[in-house]
Amino acid sequence: MTLYDLVAPGLDERGDPRYRISDIRAADPLGADALLAALPGMNADADVAALTVALRTLVPDPDRAAEWSVVAALAAMRDLGILLGSLKRHGTQPVAAVPEVLPVLELLGRRTDMVPRDTVHHYTTWNPLGPRQRMYTGHPMEAHLQEAVRMAFPGLVAALDACSRLARLEPYDPGFAVALDRTAHHVQSMVDSIDFTIAHVSPEFFALTLRPYFEEIDVAGRDYLGPAAAQVPLWLVDVTLWQCDRSHSAYDEFLADSVQYSLPSWRDFHARHAGGVSAVSKLSAAVSWENVDRLPPQLAASAHALGRVLRILKTFRARHIGIARRAYSDDLRLYDEGSGGAPVDLLRSILDLTRDNETLVRRATGTRSRVRPSAGTPAA
Questions:
Q1: Cβ distance 303 to 191 under 8 Å?
Q2: Given this chain, do its domains 17-118 and 141-218+226-368 carry the same CATH topology?
């Protein structure tokens, strides 16, 4: 049993086949188990010839692949993908080296309704556990990083459910604070995940050993990023809390590029809420109508709940920046941008935006955060 199994809220029971985690992990449609067990050794030797043969060996017949279920197609992309990243890490464009993989990647992308290469979901959540686990290096720190992402996945799914409810409510509604409290509970898994990463994965290992495997590859003339942790979209929570109408152009551009790596249902979530009114804006408007010293009880509860979620997001981002600064410091970095395509400066901007919105909520309630007495109740 892993930490993921302890926090997963029955995802397999959802209708989306992408949540059938155990089935995807168990699937081996390419018969890749034995070959991929040898992958860390090929990478340690920088054996491009062996990697090329391995990828060519695993490429299935397109007609056979077209008959696979979504579960099998996701598992196949997972196993082809780790070879794609391995070849690129050693300076070889995989599709150029093995052209016959191109129609299969495009087919699997269409079949799964995802990009035509592996994503962070393939590399972590859908990755088998134990001796079948697919890894570039086989190092314990790589396994810990994969586990950290698995820890965050169930909480993020549940947080998006809560955010969907939140978007339909107003701050005076009792459910507004409840949805925010649930969001805060689930988003805490992101903080737990980053703390686990800090404890078990050194910046040196990530920067010098693992980061090169997450480079973009060319698929039919278009670059696609590797399975970066940035593809675990905490920014979808931002969308409903503040980003949809209180953002910055640089963050908007990052999201526009990042959303393609999400699950189909998560892309739908972004499309539904990107043009909405954020929780911060709703609360600010509601507070502005209150011309008394004390807020109504429900509005005060909503304000406190929103401030709590934003503080958790702020905590996560501050710790994330700490890791990123060490991994991309002048004496370590091999790249100017993170594996998700964003420079460290953008992480700072997102933290500042999160902090600004948290400060706005705190100041908007400020001296009026005390609860207004109910009718017939003596004032304190």
A1: no
A2: yes
Instruction: Copy the structure tokens of residue 55.
Output: 């990828």
Q: 5: which 2 tokens? A: 């199994």
**CATH number belonging to the domain at 17-118, selected among 2.40.160.60, 1.50.10.10, 1.20.58.1320, 3.10.150.10:** 1.20.58.1320
**Residues whose CB is less than 8 angstroms from the CB of residue 124 and which lie 6 or more positions away in sequence, other chains included:** 146, 147, 149, 150, 153, 227
pTM across the whole model: 0.88
pLDDT 10s digits, 345-370: 788 888 899 999 999 898 877 644 44
Question: What span, in angstroms and rounded, lies between the C-alpha atoms of 56 and 81?
Answer: 12
Residue 295 in 3-state DSSP?
Answer: strand
What type of residue is 232? Answer: V
How many Cα atoms occupy the beta-carbon half-sphere of 37 within 13 Å?
Answer: 8
Range with the largest mean pLDDT of 162-166, 294-298, 369-373: 162-166
Quick one: DSSP state of residue 224? E
What are the structural domain ranges in the chain? 17-118, 141-218+226-368
* Residue 183 exposed, middle or buried by CB count within 10 Å (0-12, 13-18, 19+): buried
CA distance readout (Å), 222 to 32, 48, 106, 119, 123:
27, 23, 12, 15, 21
Instruction: Extract the runs of DSSP E, i.e. beta strands, from the chain.
Output: 217-219, 222-224
Q: Which CATH architecture has domain 141-218+226-368?
A: Up-down Bundle (1.20)
Whether the per-residue pLDDT at 1 is higher than 50: the answer is no
* Tokens standing for residue 281: 């804006």
Q: Which two tokens stand for residue 106?
A: 């495009």
Q: What is the DSSP letter of 53?
A: H
d(CA 257, CA 264): 15
Give me the helix-helix angle, 140-167 and 174-200, nearest 10°: 170
